[in-house]
Amino acid sequence: MQFTIEVGRFNPEGRYAETAVPGEPFPAPWNASPVRRYQTYTVELPQHAVVLDALIAIREYQDPSLAVRCACRSAICGSCAMWINGHANLACKSKLETFTMDGKTRVESPPSMPIIRDLVCDMKPFWDKHLAVKPWLENKEPLPPPDEEYRVPNAAMEELIQEVSCISCSACLMDCESFAVNPDFLGPQALAQAYRYVGDPRDAKTKERLGELSKAGGIWDCTHCFECVQQCPKGVAPLEQILKLRKLAVDAGFTNNPGTRHADAFADSVKHSGRLNELTLMPKSTGLFNIVGQLKTLPSAINMARAGKLPPLIHKAIPGVERIKKIFQRVGGRFK
Amino acid sequence: MKVAFYPGCVSKGACPELYVSAKIIAEPLGLELHELESAPCTGAGVLSEQNRELADALNGLTLAMAEAQGAELMTICSTCQGVLSDHNYHLKKDEARRDKANATIADQGFRYSGTTTVKHLLWMLFEDIGIERVERAIKRKLTGLKIAPFYGCYILRPSEALGLRERPERKTYLNRLIELLGAEAVEYRGATKCCGFPMLTFNRDKALAMGGNHILEAKDKGADLLVTPCPLCHLNLDGQQPDAARVLKKDIGVPIFHLPQLLGLAFGFEPEQLRLNHHVVPTTGALEKVELKV
Fold first, then answer.
1. ipTM of the complex
2. pTM for the whole thing?
3. What is the fold of A125-251?
4. pLDDT tens readout for residues A192-243
5. Do B108 and A326 touch (CB under 8 A)?
6. Looking at the complex, does the CB of residue A253 fall below 8 Å from at least one CB of chain B?
7. Hey, CA dihedral for A244, A247, A251, A257, is it positive or negative?
8. A278–B247 CB contact, under 8 Å
9. E strands present in B9-153
10. CATH number for the domain formed by residue range(s) A2-122
11. Where are the domains of chain A?
12. Fold observed for domain B140-289
């Protein structure tokens, strides 16, 4: 079968205009990137071939200058993650047939990471974040005697199977929407790994970890877009782990942040009226005594009020709101 | 066709133009809207994050109300669609979770047996109403307009609960609709990305940059306007646009239409009827292209 591949090639004269830099204005990632140009190849391969087969065939038989990073070719090593038709995927796991759109497959280095050459991006941002969450166990005292080991119940480890499945391919970070505008965000992979250690009964630093993760750049800087869940080739579902961390952090008492205030204000409004009160949600989440924060939201509020887009000043409850209150009370837990 | 209509909090709050325009276009589409007036908020994912059982019960209640009406549940908000789909998916599949939710809502005289279908208006156009009917309702082709689709995360991801595995074409409905109405759909990366709204209260400037970047990209590709099936995206992309422009130090000025507003225009309704004069970013420029004024 014949396949057409459009490959994003490195243009050495280009700049890294697409990568967010702390302190710099936010990047405009769609800019016809000066660091890449597209080159089209045609390859003859069997129907079941994957994108990586095509890239290797190009490199071996057509254009030895093409740079591509790969090793295991069987979705275990995680080295061939790249953008395929605009989303991160493992080239060795993506069938050409499935990924052919309008007669071709477009392959490129992800725009949110610096390019080294062609399809090889610089993984430094990824590993920096990974290391920042201290991805190792901090031993609980007392240590087991030298000839023994920690005993962990099976169920406790089953809870962590998803996170342990991570192969550090960075597909999630490559498509992370928050990371694209906020280089300080720890990102889906690092946070999923953070949960792997927070959730491990052998770890001694659970509370300290949750405290660190509640700070800026941590769990509350995720925008909840599900891109990481969608792109992960191993079913780690990083967003789900981030949400678990949010709950654990709130339960552990790390509540002095907009995230917790937002959730509490949201719940309070639904409990008492059955629906969301947009008028009070924003100020309550910002923190009623956070004057600077409140002032920042003021121009938008005025713009919206002028356009007639302010929610009704008197917030009306839905019919039968008593029912909703009873459900809140019956379920119990936070928000009761 | 009778549907259990779930308008969502935002269409009754900060985006009244969405509610009004959704009701207007129901008639030409042959939709009989039975509004679920006493259905609670979905929790927008915020409640389920801290208390899943509570969110299961609240959404179970809504699903049970639609079930009792014997009609499909129709949303007009990508976020409501995503959250209801997610809970529906789990409540249908996981009997223990459903039993638990039912035990909670049983006191209130409700029970969900797992038969409700949740569909966004956008999906209904293609799957239930049919494009022939939509075409017949068109009175004013939107020829000459370049429109950038903005789907909103929760109508696309996670694909499993949204039934996108079985119906991958759902990922293209907005593009197809734009073409069907006679306009040109702008291709750009931002179409399926996040508007930044969920992060607005946590990290304001970054959230504004996120949405602003997508609009600027569409503008770069020649878009006269963006259309979105999600009012939360609308809040960030329209309501906060002047602030996003300030953060990005760029001019933006691209109007954002709700899906029913765009349909309404094509069906021959006047811009005022669709409250297109009640946006933060003026819609005048885009409307002039189809020789309309507000």
1. 0.93
2. 0.93
3. Fumarate Reductase Iron-sulfur Protein; Chain B, domain 2 (1.10.1060)
4. 999 999 999 999 999 999 999 999 999 999 999 999 999 999 999 999 999 9
5. yes
6. no
7. positive
8. no
9. 32-35, 72-75, 118-120, 146-149
10. 3.10.20.30
11. 2-122, 125-251, 273-331
12. Rossmann fold (3.40.50)
